[in-house]
Amino acid sequence: SLNEAQHRQASEMLALAEQRQTDIEHWQQELARAITSYHITPVSSHNLLLDWLPNEGRLAGISTWASQQFHVQKANNQDHEHMMMRQQLQTIQHTMDLEQWPKARLWTSLRSRLQLHMLHDDVSHQALTLPEDFSPIQADIELLQQTARTWLKEY
Q1: Could you give the 3-state DSSP secondary structure of residue 101?
Q2: Do the Cβ atoms of 76 and 43 come closer than 8 Å?
Q3: Using CA atoms, how far apart are residues 121 and 78, in angstroms rounded to an integer?
Q4: b/e per residue, 77-90, with b = 16+ CB within 10 A?
């Protein structure tokens, strides 16, 4: 029921939406690769729960079970930085599905630190292919939404 111009516009919008979905999936894969490159190395393999939980008496069985289920180790200072970076990246990776993008200033800083880390600390030494900013995809999503609103008003 679409005329030729409407059909062409619908095809263009579909192609744009598919391309942007592909971009998001690629960026999420790149972030996943970056997340795994942030290794956390414990200072020792000793489970600190063994020191804290009672080894005798009525709670000995529960203590043994807890120490087998959970392993607490002391981490070094660099691990704290790696944990923070991993959490930031995981949050960004998740919020991309919701079409929520990091603030430009935060992303610029994070992206540059991430690029340096990947070139220096990643075994494969491959640079990440992440966008410098998310304004193009934001504009495309706005265009898609505006087009959909216009179509709804017309029909």
Answers
A1: coil
A2: yes
A3: 13
A4: eebeebeebbebbe
Question: Taking the model in full, what pTM does it have?
Answer: 0.71
pLDDT in tens, the chain (155 residues): 778 888 899 999 999 999 999 999 999 999 998 998 887 666 667 777 777 677 777 777 877 787 778 777 766 666 778 888 999 999 999 999 999 999 999 999 999 999 888 887 766 667 789 999 999 999 999 999 999 898 888 77
For 145, the token pair is: 């939404």
Where helices occur in 43-103 by DSSP H, the ranges are: 49-52, 60-69, 77-97
Rounded distance, CA 147 to CA 17, Å? Answer: 12
Element holding 106 (H helix, E strand): helix 104-121
Residue matched to tokens 């898609």 = 144
Largest Cα span, the chain? 82
Q: Residue 79's Cα: distance from chain center in Å? A: 18
The residue among 70, 77, 73 whose CA lies nearest residue 48 is 73
Please tell me the distance from the alpha carbon of residue 134 to that of residue 92, in angstroms, as a whole number.
Answer: 12
What residues form DSSP beta bridges with 79? Answer: none
Rounded Cα distance, 114 and 130, in Å: 10
**What residue ranges in the chain does DSSP mark as E strands?**
none
